[in-house]
Amino acid sequence: MLFDLRSRGRRRTIQVVYGFLAVLIGGGLVFFGVGGGAGSTGLLSQLANQGTGSATGIKVDESAVEEAQRAVKRDPSSVAAWDRYARAAFTLADTNYVTTETGFTPAGAKELAVLKRAWYQYLSLNPTKPDTALAADVAFAFGDTGIREFPVAESGQEVVAENDNSADEYAQLAAYAFLAHESDRAHLAEAKALALAPKSQRKTIESELAQVAAQVTGATGSSGSTGTSG
Which helix (H) or strand (E) holds 228? Predict the structure, then answer.
């Protein structure tokens, strides 16, 4: 993966490549749940539950969220408690409230709102070593393959990129920063990606990020962007 810049109804040249890969990978994912994580189910299972978890599974995951919520109320300064709360909210949404057709359902989006609050509170406590697995879940849930709240996705991807320190992850961070209208941050991440990338990949990274920036600004062929910086 270079970085995922897909969204419904767009992507030009790279859409052809990703579309082909989606046919290969999607068959296993859709029909058998292959590669979708611990909470994933295939289409055969979803035909039975219409994109939601079983009543028992939902109840278990809801109980985990409630227990984690009580823990943060008992100790609001606990990094571990907020981490657990955020993880529980993501699990509830990702395991029980997704469909192959539309992604997260409205019920899933509601749980992701809980995840968002818990994630930001977790970050505000300045964890010594941020949970990169949780950060990746945040980037996924709020990114182009999720509910498209790009500032939140950017905050998760930043943790992933800093931990992984790879061109791919910094390029993805730049893409989310552009989509979040964070121009300065996007250019910093892009520069980091280019510095880490092999020379043969730099033109591709520049081209694809230019497309993202152009989408945001409407300036075709321009890699510049306007917006706030943070």
Answer: none
CA 85/CA 77 separation, integer angstroms:
13
Q: C-alpha angle with apex 4: 142 to 196, nearest 5 degrees?
A: 110
Residues 6+ apart with CB under 8 A from 102: 51
Q: Cα–Cα distances in Å, from 9 out to 15, 41, 94, 109, 207?
A: 10, 25, 23, 21, 19
Q: Please state the domain extents for the chain.
A: 12-49, 52-121, 129-218
Residue 146 contacts residue 103 (beta carbons within 8 Å): yes
d(CA 148, CA 123): 20
Digit-coded pLDDT (tens) for 134-182: 999 999 999 998 999 999 999 999 999 999 999 999 999 999 999 999 9
- Taking a C-beta distance cutoff of 8 angstroms, is the pair 157, 172 a contact? yes
- 134/122 Cα distance (integer angstroms): 11
- Reported pTM: 0.72
182 pairs with which residues across the strands? 228
- Angle, alpha carbons 142-147-152 (nearest 5°): 25
- Residue written as tokens 């278990």? 60
Low-confidence spans in the chain with pLDDT less than 70: 1-53, 219-230
Cα–Cα distance measured from residue 49 to residue 55, given in angstroms and rounded to the nearest whole number: 9
